[in-house]
C-alpha cells in the first residue's frame, strides 16, 4: 500500500492475501479434470478395456458424459450452474477442435492432453485470481482489494462493523486459514440463501385452456460476500481474527462509555446553566451599580 | 472325529479368539510407532499432524455414530474438527446398548477402515479369500490345534495373495493407485486415541488398553455374553460341520493384517519425511519427486523392453532409487554421517587441545 493512500495517523497492521488452498472449490474442478484426463488416457490406450474404444465417437461420448455428469453433480452440490456450463464449454471446445482439425485418429492422445491442458489453464486462472486479492488491516479501517480485470475495493471503518462472521473449513483447520466476514451496520456482508418451489396446472385439452401457476419461496439471511469483500482464507486465521476483533472493540463505544459520555454531557449542561446564571447575576449587579451612580450624580 | 471332549468343548473356540487378539496387539504396537513418528515430525509438519488427527477423529466419530445407529439410540449431535469430535445419542440408552455403543467407539477404529480396504481387495485380488483346512487335519478340525491351524492357513493364504498383489501393484493403474492412496489414507487414521494439539496427558497404547479394560470391567457380564455367543456359534458350526466360526475370525485376522500393512507403509512414509527434514531448502523435496519420476521412467523403459517382472522390478528400482538419492543427499548436503569434517580433524583438534593444556 502506498503512503499517499493512508489517512492521517493511519498505521498498517497487516497486509494479507488468501491462502493458496483457500480457493479449493475452484481448484478441485481443475483437479477433477486432471484425474479424468489421466483416466481417459489410460482407458483408451493402456487398459484391458481399450478394445471398447476403437470407435472415436464412443471415446468422445464416454469422455463427455462423465464430464457433464460431474458438472451437473458439482452444480447441484454448490448451487452454481456456472460449473456445468464451464464443463459443457470444455466439452464443446474439445469436440470442436477434433472436428475442425480432423484429429479423429489421434483421439486417444488428444483428449487426455486437452483435458489436462485445460485444467492447467484453470489452475493458473484461479492462482491469478487469488493473487489479485489484497487485504489491508490498519488501525482505522480494513481495505479489501480484488479482481483481475475490474478492480474492486471496499473500505470498512471499525466503528461501522456491527458483527463479525468467521468460518474455518476442515482444510482451513488443517492448514490454519479461515474466512472472516465483517458485517457492516448497513448490512454489507449479508446475503440470502433462496429456495423456491413452483407448480403449474393446465386444464382443457382442445379449445379452452386454463393455466394456473402457484409457488412459494423461502429466503434465509446469511453472512455472505464476494471474496474481495471479505477476508477470504486469511492466514494465520486465529491471529487475524483476534486482531480484527480487538480493533473493532477498540473503536466501538461500550454501554459504560455511553453512560460516561451522557454523564459528562449533563455536567457540561449544568456548568453552562450555572455560567449563564452567574452572568445574569453579574449583569444585574452591574446595571444596579450603574443606576445608583447615575442617581448619585 | 478325534480330540478330547474338553479340548473341543472348552479350548477349541478360544483358539481363533486368542489369535485375533495377538494380531490386534501387533496392530497396537504399529499404531504406537506411528504415533511416535508423528510426534517427532510434528514441529515441522503441523498440517500433516492435524490431518492425521482429523482422520483419526473422523473414524472414531463414525464408529461411535455407527454404534448409536446399531443400538437404535439415534444421533442428535454430530461434530468433528481437527482436535475434537462429538457424537451424542437422541435417546440415552443404558446397559447393554450403551456398552455396545462404547465398544464401537473403542474397538471400531481398529477394524472399520481396514474392513473398507478389505472390500476393495475383493475386487482387486485374484485369490486368497479361501477358508482352508488342511486335509490331514480334518479329523482334528474342531480341536484347539485344528482351529488354530485352520485360522493360520487361511491367514497364510490371504497374506500370500495380499503380498502378491502389493508387490505386483501397477501404480499406473487407476484402481491400484487409488487403493494404495486409500491404504495410506486409512493407515494415517487408524488410531483409536485422540492426539490433541498440545499434549496434555499420555495418550498411548496403554491408554487405549486402559479404555478397553475399563469397558470390560464396567460390565463383565456383557463380555461373558459375548463369549457365550462365540461358543454357541462354534457349537453350531461343529454340529453342521462347517467352518463358519473360523471364517468369522479369519476375516477379523485379514482386517488386522491389512491394518498392520497400512501402518507399516504409513510408517515408511513418515520415516522418509523425518529423514528429508534434515535436508536444506529445496533438496528435501527431491526424494519425493524421485518416487513418481523414477517409477514412470522405469515403466517407460519396460514398455519398450518388456519383462515378466515389470511391476515388481519397477517397484523395487523405485524404492532403491529413492533410498539411494536420500542417502546421497544426506551425505553431501548435510553432515549427518560426519563426513564433511573428517574424524581425523577432530582427533587432531582434541590432541592439540590436550597438548596445549
Strand content of chain A: 15-25%
For the sheet with most strands of chain A, the description reads: 4 strands, antiparallel
Determine the N-to-C terminus distance of chain A: 78 Å
Overall shape of chain B: it is globular
Query: Which class best fits the helix and strand makeup of chain B?
Result: mainly alpha
CATH topology of the largest domain in chain A: PH-domain like
Radius of gyration of chain B: 25 Å
Q: Strand tally of chain A, please?
A: 9
Helix content of chain A: 40-55%
Shape annotation of chain A: elongated
Domain count of chain A: the total is 2
| Binned strand content of chain B | under 5%
Level-1 CATH class name of the largest domain in chain A: Mainly Beta
Mean pLDDT of chain B: 84
The number of distinct β-strands of chain B equals: 2
Counted by DSSP, the helix tally of chain B is 12
Cα gyration radius of chain A (Å): 33 Å
Supply the CATH architecture of the largest domain in chain A: Roll
What is the subunit organization of this protein? heterodimer
Structure overview:
- In chain A, 52% of the residues lie in helices and 23% in strands.
- In chain A, the strands form 3 sheets. Chain A has a 4-stranded antiparallel β-sheet.
- In chain A, helix 1 packs antiparallel against helix 2 and helix 1 runs antiparallel to helix 4.
- Chain A starts with 11 loop residues before the first strand and ends with a helix.
- The mean pLDDT of chain A is 87.
- Chain B has 2 domains: 270 residues, no CATH class; 79 residues, no CATH class.
- Chain B has 357 residues and is mainly alpha-helical.
- In chain B, strand 1 and strand 2 form a beta hairpin.
- Chain B contains 12 helices and 2 strands; from the N terminus they run H-H-H-E-E-H-H-H-H-H-H-H-H-H.
- The longest helix of chain B is centred in the C-terminal third of the chain and has 33 residues.
- Chains A and B meet through helix 1 and helix 5 of A and helix 3 of B.
Amino acid at each position: 500500500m502506498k503512503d499517499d493512500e493512508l489517512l492521517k495517523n493511519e498505521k498498517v497492521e497487516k497486509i494479507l492475501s488468501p491462502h493458496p488452498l483457500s480457493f479449493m472449490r475452484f481448484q478441485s474442478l481443475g483437479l477433477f479434470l486432471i484425474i479424468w484426463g489421466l483416466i481417459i488416457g489410460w482407458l483408451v490406450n493402456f487398459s484391458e478395456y481399450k478394445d471398447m474404444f476403437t470407435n472415436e465417437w464412443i471415446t468422445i461420448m464416454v469422455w463427455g458424459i462423465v464430464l457433464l455428469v460431474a458438472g451437473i453433480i458439482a452444480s447441484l452440490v454448490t448451487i452454481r450452474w456456472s460449473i456445468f456450463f464451464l464443463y459443457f464449454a470444455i466439452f464443446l471446445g474439445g469436440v470442436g477442435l477434433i472436428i475442425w482439425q480432423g484429429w479423429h485418429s489421434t483421439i486417444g492422445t488428444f483428449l487426455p492432453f486437452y483435458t489436462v491442458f485445460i485444467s492447467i489453464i484453470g489452475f493458473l486462472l484461479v492462482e491469478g485470481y487469488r493473487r489479485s486479492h489484497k487485504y489491508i488491516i490498519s488501525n482505522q479501517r480494513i481495505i479489501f482489494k480484488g479482481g483481475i480485470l475490474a478492480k474492486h475495493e471496499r473500505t470498512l471503518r471499525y466503528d461501522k462493523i456491527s458483527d463479525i462472521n468467521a468460518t474455518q473449513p476442515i482444510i482451513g483447520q488443517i492448514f490454519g486459514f479461515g474466512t472472516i466476514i465483517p458485517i457492516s451496520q448497513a448490512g454489507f456482508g449479508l446475503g440470502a440463501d433462496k429456495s423456491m418451489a413452483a407448480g403449474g396446472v393446465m386444464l382443457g385439452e382442445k379449445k379452452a385452456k386454463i393455466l394456473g401457476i402457484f409457488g412459494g419461496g423461502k429466503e434465509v439471511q446469511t453472512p455472505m460476500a464476494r471474496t474481495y469483500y471479505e477476508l477470504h482464507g486469511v492466514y494465520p486465521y486465529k491471529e487475524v481474527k483476534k486482531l480484527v476483533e480487538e480493533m473493532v472493540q477498540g473503536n466501538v463505544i461500550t454501554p459504560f462509555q455511553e453512560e460516561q459520555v451522557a454523564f459528562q454531557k449533563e455536567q457540561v449542561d449544568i456548568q453552562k446553566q450555572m455560567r449563564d446564571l452567574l452572568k445574569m447575576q453579574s449583569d444585574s449587579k452591574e446595571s444596579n451599580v450603574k443606576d445608583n451612580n447615575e442617581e448619585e450624580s | 472325529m478325534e480330540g478330547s471332549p474338553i479340548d473341543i468343548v472348552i479350548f477349541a473356540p478360544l483358539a481363533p479368539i486368542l489369535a485375533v487378539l495377538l494380531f490386534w496387539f501387533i496392530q497396537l504396537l504399529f499404531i504406537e510407532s506411528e504415533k511416535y513418528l508423528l510426534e517427532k515430525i510434528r514441529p515441522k509438519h503441523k498440517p500433516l499432524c492435524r490431518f492425521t488427527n482429523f482422520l483419526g477423529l473422523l473414524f472414531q466419530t463414525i464408529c461411535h455414530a455407527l454404534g448409536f445407529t446399531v443400538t437404535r439410540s439415534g444421533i442428535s449431535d454430530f461434530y468433528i474438527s481437527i482436535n475434537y469430535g462429538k457424537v451424542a445419542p437422541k435417546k440415552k440408552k443404558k446397559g447393554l446398548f450403551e456398552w455396545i455403543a462404547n465398544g464401537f467407539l473403542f474397538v471400531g477404529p481398529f477394524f472399520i477402515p481396514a474392513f473398507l480396504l478389505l472390500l476393495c481387495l475383493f475386487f482387486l485380488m485374484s485369490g486368497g479369500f479361501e477358508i482352508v483346512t488342511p486335509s490331514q487335519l480334518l479329523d482334528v478340525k474342531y480341536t484347539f490345534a485344528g482351529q488354530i491351524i485352520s485360522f493360520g492357513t487361511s491367514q497364510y493364504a490371504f497374506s500370500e495373495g495380499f503380498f502378491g498383489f502389493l508387490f505386483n501393484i501397477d501404480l499406473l493403474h487407476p484402481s491400484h493407485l487409488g487403493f494404495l492412496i486409500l491404504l495410506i489414507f486409512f493407515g494415517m487414521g487408524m488410531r483409536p486415541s485422540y492426539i490433541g494439539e498440545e499434549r496434555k496427558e499420555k495418550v498411548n497404547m496403554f491408554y487405549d488398553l486402559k479404555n478397553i479394560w475399563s469397558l470390560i470391567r464396567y460390565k463383565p457380564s456383557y463380555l461373558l455374553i459375548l463369549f457365550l455367543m462365540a461358543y454357541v456359534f462354534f457349537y453350531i458350526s461343529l454340529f453342521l460341520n462347517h467352518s463358519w466360526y473360523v471364517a468369522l475370525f479369519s476375516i477379523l485376522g485379514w482386517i488386522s493384517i491389512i491394518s498392520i500393512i497400512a501402518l507399516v507403509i504409513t510408517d515408511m512414509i513418515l520415516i522418509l519425511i523425518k529423514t528429508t527434514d534434515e535436508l536444506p531448502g529445496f533438496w528435501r523435496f527431491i526424494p519425493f519427486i524421485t518416487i513418481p519420476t523414477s517409477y514412470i521412467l522405469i515403466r517407460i523403459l519396460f514398455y519398450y523392453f518388456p519383462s515378466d517382472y515389470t511391476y515388481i522390478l519397477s517397484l523395487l528400482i523405485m524404492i532403491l532409487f529413492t533410498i539411494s538419492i536420500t542417502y546421497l543427499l544426506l551425505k553431501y548436503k548435510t553432515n549427518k554421517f560426519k563426513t564433511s569434517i573428517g574424524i581425523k580433524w577432530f582427533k587432531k583438534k582434541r590432541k592439540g587441545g590436550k597438548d596445549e593444556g
